[in-house]
Amino acid sequence: MESGGTASAPALVRFSGIQKTYDGEHLVVKNLDLDIRKGEFVTLLGPSGSGKTTTLMMLAGFEVPTHGEIYVADRPIKDMPPHKRDIGMVFQNYALFPHLTIEENVAFPLAVRKVKKAEAQERVRAALRMIKMEPLAQRRPGQLSGGQQQRVALARALVFNPQLVLMDEPLGALDKRLREQMQLEIKQLHETMGITVVYVTHDQSEALTMSDRIAVFNDGIVQQIDKPDALYERPVNSFVANFVGENNVLAGIVETIEQGYCRVALASGGTVTARAVNVAGAGAATSLSVRPERIAIVTNRAAGEGPNRLPATVHDIIYLGDHTLAVLEAAGNEEFMVKLQPGAHGDLSHGQQVSVTFSPEDCLALDPM
Amino acid sequence: MTEALLTGVDAPTGVPLRRRLKRAERARQVKALALVVPLLLFLLLTFVGPIASMLWRAVDDWEVPRVLPHTVAALADWNGKDLPDERAYAALADDILAARAAGTVAIASKRLNYALNGFRTILASTSRNLKTAPEPGTARETLGKINPAWRDRGTWSAIKGAGGPMTSFYLLAALDLTRNADGAIVAAPPDQAIYRDVFARTFTISFGVALLCLILGFPVAYLLATLPPGRSNLLMIFVLLPFWTSLLVRTCAWIVLLQSNGVVNDGLRWLGIIDAPLRLIYNRFGVYVAMTHVLLPFMILPLYSSMKAISPAYMRAAASLGAAPVTAFLRIYLPQTLPGIGAGGLLVFILALGYYITPALVGGGGDQMISYFIALYTTETANWGLASALGAVLLLATLLLATVYGKLVQGQQVTGGMKN
């Protein structure tokens, strides 16, 4: 999974105590400390307005931090103009120059660096070959499809071998199928070229697919920085649990905490056992988080008693091809979702009274929402 | 189904697809046509018609054929080398008598006087002294006696040259050319050869004004396109303000400002920069200042619209790719404003070509543009032929420039790459 960056590699980019405000009243980025290692693919993930794009723009040099310093290869770059930073950037709307051909677009960074013509030509050709766009070299951007334009934008950002490549929601304007294809292509480019990428997106599945590490932003604060699997399996708070992947939330009060596990009295009655991840202590409010694929439905209510077993009513069965989604009402949550294997829903019907059950391992007690 | 689409024939009805499409669209087309008909008629009556008639006047030669019809007929087979034969003299005598009775001698003499200076006197003396039709066979002698000019071949070639129905005389005159007695095209005598200079002056001033408008308008348009909406709207009002003021008022305002005891001269003297008032008006400087001011919005608006379409992402992309601000401006921003520069430049240039009132009011004698002469010939001397010819040459030159511009632009058509 971890192709490029390792824990021992030195930090290429270091955000140190970065704050940013536009209006002098609200901090868009609050006290950001973040290290990005050489060769790493780091995604800044978060809803709009969470500060992720502002962070990227500060790194690119289009915004100036209100406080703090950014280091690239141990050099402070806060006062360095963007064109001297040697950072390639891919924009959401491609920003290919419409008056230049594809070839001229890709050659632009080399031309402004006064690279010798023959060498530049060779590098441009290699870059176009890499994205399989050689035959279209003489076209103009307006004559290409969105996916082709984005490939050219990628080639243009990579052709001058920058120390760092930034991508600002580069796939946002593409349709789903093309987006997934491009995700794999970008991932592959990253692995073969060993480049360092900082990628901004609000699409959590995109982040999970491509990243070595993901920094989840909310409200100008990095909530968690971790590998994709850790982020999904071990979210540190309710925001991360809800933002990354599907999640069922149950509200309750902590009764006791013991050896990392706690008893939680649900607001709707009944108690469950959960892993105590982020709870203040006995008597505090908590939000329980259970992933839909970690829940089983028991049709026979009477059969046996488990530790975490709640009565539920089936509201809807949604067939989704590779799996089936059951929407139930359980413990006061009207949209309690359970992912079932295909064919496992045969005897479920609308309005049926069932039980849902999950192991304490898979139920996380987090901060109250 | 695929086959049916390829052949254009639909199986159930057998009617070709193309024809059915046409039929289906006909109602829409009729409706569209009905919407434009009023304007089309209006334009035909008020624009196309007058221009066509003006162009026709530039070559129309009706005066002499109408007043001296028999003479023109008799000269039809004259070789032009010797004096015409007796028949032509007799016809001329008849025509002059008839014209005197009808009171139309002046019409012909005005036209013939353009062709040959002094013809007015020749015709006047002849019509005054020719009492009756000369005896058959004596017409040449009689007329020659009344005015010896009738023994001159040039007099007759002037009549033949003006014999219609069409003439190149006015158009040649508009280009400082004329025909000699042999009908060859030669340069006009220096005292009449003024129009090439006037055309050159007209194009120079227009080009200069367009250039000044570009230099002054570009930064303003850039500000307009990049300021936040609130402030750019305010600025836009200032740009459009001149449109809401009469052209005459604005020109007169410049007279007030620039005259010897005007605001500018007084201010400079008060500051001690100058001792004697500068001559700022009734010369080329005044023309440039006033015309640039009047035409500036026509440059700013097309520039603004082309700049508004340039996403700020382009400049950011250029910077991230390593281009310093000046490089990014020259290689990325400026090329994308070229359509706006072209459109604004052409608009200002063509509008300036036809400017009349501003140079007439703030210019000196040597700053008058072609439209001044067109107005002069139309309203003062009633030489409509020459006025039309000057207009036609101006129109042709303008169309030529516009076509060249169109071809240049077509070569580098810019298509937007942003999908917003």
TrEMBL record, chain A:
<keyword id="KW-1278">Translocase</keyword>
<dbReference type="InterPro" id="IPR027417">
    <property type="entry name" value="P-loop_NTPase"/>
</dbReference>
<keyword id="KW-0472">Membrane</keyword>
<comment type="subunit">
    <text>The complex is composed of two ATP-binding proteins (PotA), two transmembrane proteins (PotB and PotC) and a solute-binding protein (PotD).</text>
</comment>
<dbReference type="Pfam" id="PF08402">
    <property type="entry name" value="TOBE_2"/>
</dbReference>
<dbReference type="InterPro" id="IPR005893">
    <property type="entry name" value="PotA-like"/>
</dbReference>
<dbReference type="Pfam" id="PF00005">
    <property type="entry name" value="ABC_tran"/>
</dbReference>
<dbReference type="InterPro" id="IPR003593">
    <property type="entry name" value="AAA+_ATPase"/>
</dbReference>
<dbReference type="InterPro" id="IPR008995">
    <property type="entry name" value="Mo/tungstate-bd_C_term_dom"/>
</dbReference>
<comment type="similarity">
    <text>Belongs to the ABC transporter superfamily. Spermidine/putrescine importer (TC 3.A.1.11.1) family.</text>
</comment>
<dbReference type="InterPro" id="IPR003439">
    <property type="entry name" value="ABC_transporter-like_ATP-bd"/>
</dbReference>
<dbReference type="InterPro" id="IPR013611">
    <property type="entry name" value="Transp-assoc_OB_typ2"/>
</dbReference>
<feature type="domain" description="ABC transporter">
    <location>
        <begin position="13"/>
        <end position="244"/>
    </location>
</feature>
<comment type="function">
    <text>Part of the ABC transporter complex PotABCD involved in spermidine/putrescine import. Responsible for energy coupling to the transport system.</text>
</comment>
<comment type="function">
    <text>Involved in beta-(1--&gt;2)glucan export. Transmembrane domains (TMD) form a pore in the inner membrane and the ATP-binding domain (NBD) is responsible for energy generation.</text>
</comment>
<dbReference type="InterPro" id="IPR017871">
    <property type="entry name" value="ABC_transporter-like_CS"/>
</dbReference>
<dbReference type="InterPro" id="IPR050093">
    <property type="entry name" value="ABC_SmlMolc_Importer"/>
</dbReference>
<keyword id="KW-0067">ATP-binding</keyword>
<dbReference type="GO" id="GO:0005524">
    <property type="term" value="F:ATP binding"/>
</dbReference>
<protein>
    <recommendedName>
        <fullName>Spermidine/putrescine import ATP-binding protein PotA</fullName>
        <ecNumber>7.6.2.11</ecNumber>
    </recommendedName>
</protein>
<dbReference type="InterPro" id="IPR012340">
    <property type="entry name" value="NA-bd_OB-fold"/>
</dbReference>
<keyword id="KW-1003">Cell membrane</keyword>
<keyword id="KW-0813">Transport</keyword>
<keyword id="KW-0547">Nucleotide-binding</keyword>
